[in-house]
Amino acid sequence: MTSILSSPIEYLKGVGPQRADLLKKELQVFTFKDLLDCFPFRHVDKTQVRPIRELSPQSDYAQVSGTVISIEEQGEKRGKRLVAVVTDGTGMLELTWFQGIPWALKRIQRGGRYLVFGKVGFFMGRPQIVHPELEEFSEEKVNGKPFLEPVYPSTEKLKARGLNGRQIGKLVWQLFEALGPRDLPENLPAELVERFRFLSRYETYRQVHFPARPELQTKAVDRLKFEEFFFAQLRLNILKIQRHKESHGPLFAKVGDLFNTFYKDCLPFELTNAQKRVLREIRQDTGLGKQMNRLLQGDVGSGKTIVAVLALLLAVDNGFQGCLMAPTEILAQQHFEGISRLLEPLDVRVALLTGSTRSKERKEVLRNLQEGSVHIVIGTHALIEDPVQFRALGLAIVDEQHRFGVAQRASLWKKSVVPPHILVMTATPIPRTLAMTAYGDLDYSIMDELPPGRQPIVTVHRHESGRPKVMDFIKSEIAKGRQAYIIFPLIEESEKLAYEDLMKGYDNVKAYFPEPTYWISMVHGRQASDVKETNMQRFVQGDTQIMVSTTVIEVGVNVPNASVMVIESSEKFGLSQLHQLRGRVGRGSEQSYCILMTGSKLGQEARERIKVMTSTQNGFEIAEKDLELRGPGDIEGTRQSGELNFRLASIVQDKQWLELAKREAVRIAEADPELLSDDHRPIREFLLSQKGKTAWSKIS
Ligand SMILES: Nc1ncnc2c1ncn2[C@@H]1O[C@H](COP(=O)(O)OP(=O)(O)OP(=O)(O)O)[C@@H](O)[C@H]1O
Fold it and tell me: Domain Helicase C-terminal: where (predicted)?
């Protein structure tokens, strides 16, 4: 049965072909249901008639009733206006028209009594409404059916064609004339509706658009927010359960010699409890013959690399290959060197493959991967784009920084006969709510414990006037044998400016730290990758004491001897970036310092960020704050593939609903993943009716 809601919008009374075209183009409203889903952005209160005396500059929209005591056309030509004065015995109100004067003159008479509605302004100390709505007064209108009138989002084009926010409301009203409760059947289990005391689905839509009372509107909006979260979570959880049930993955049946030898003889330190826990989770996942899809969130410096190495050995022990993808060439190179060193005592062949690997070498690596003589390959994302084929890829580890989406993950599956296990590692913690919505289909592990012996990084905020002292401080640290980073912002919109800033900064630093007492490395995005690499290496090896750089070093670089991080113009960085940058120091057991330099004038949000940075070092707390300050859409690199496109709900403001919806969705998905029970029939039918829109491919 096709529902009336799928009717094309041109069939709605009052629409017609021309308006339909506009609605489609301007608001993407194609059907009745699309119009129903256009929610008003506010309501104007028509439930009350206010005494004129009480109107104030804060009144916003108001409704009054009064008698017209004068009507006068004022001004000439372009400045012409119509002014009517109305009184209700408590005060005088001016009604003014600049346009449509002949029309207004026909509708208003001296001595007539009217209901007037509009936005209250003040002109020469008197309340005034420009272009008011006007109706002849009748007791019935006031006492009959007062309501909150919806105002809808409109566009300039729509307004020009007579469809402003309030007229769209009239269309929605028309729509409700044609709709009954049966057109909006329940989509949640009855038990759940009752437990949360939700309005029925029909009533929900009605009250969202035309609320009888403000509290009913709130109730209706709450249900819709719950629905948005609930269906998103349900879909992700069912996908996860189905994947667990159906997927086939490489079986890592044993913990073999390589893993054991490395663990016993080569591990340079005792693993933290968090590292051990995550390894256990990985072993469990990979030992079932199902495909693992796991997100590992580790705070900066929590020691993800060693977890990755052990997981890769597990793969090799079981006759599979592994790959590790890093977000930049520098990091791939660094991982390659570090991991090759660690694995030197073992009989494991490790290769590097990045965009700048020369073609002869590349061919060889590609051949070795296909033949299976290379066990582990480390590279950049070029690894998935290149025609790389493995003999038997068992595990792909992606060091992702939020940049690795569903599509890339899927492309990894084609690299080998059986889809490999996938471990996505993020170094910037993701707020819980964001992880739930954007990565809800993955299993996830958290590493929130730092290796022992780390000291908190002393973080301070300094203005330009404090620069000489900052420079002296760096000198004193270098004198102790330590190294320092000085970071300049990379502003993408104005790369040239950022480059000039960096060069100026470099000259300044050089003036403070002259050769040959001091040596400086500089790394920035305009350098060829071998130059970058050499400069980086000199710093890593301790040949240079200072690294001046744009944020190319933001992620992952590991130089435990560096103890000072100076961030120039730090107000220009986002919180997670600042946290990442700060994480480059404090990686050894020495006391480290982070100095946030800023200009003297800071905006509210920048001040807030600096405050957060100087008060906590916990990446998970910082991530929550970042989300609060900037919203999910602005979180750096957040996956934007629709997971967060909620119409009404906000993962920041509606956390409680998200938690509740998740709890219910998990419960239902686990108990009845195919939604076959009678109780769950409303959900099933609803999802099937949404097919195509929600990628509900599995249960049909
Ligand atoms: N259990 C441990 N005990 C002592 N040191 C450790 C331990 N685990 C890792 N380390 C050391 O801590 C430093 C940071 O580790 P690693 O580079 O793996 O961090 P990470 O989690 O990748 O951090 P980031 O994302 O900030 O790069 C390294 O020098 C590493 O050798």
Answer: 466-628
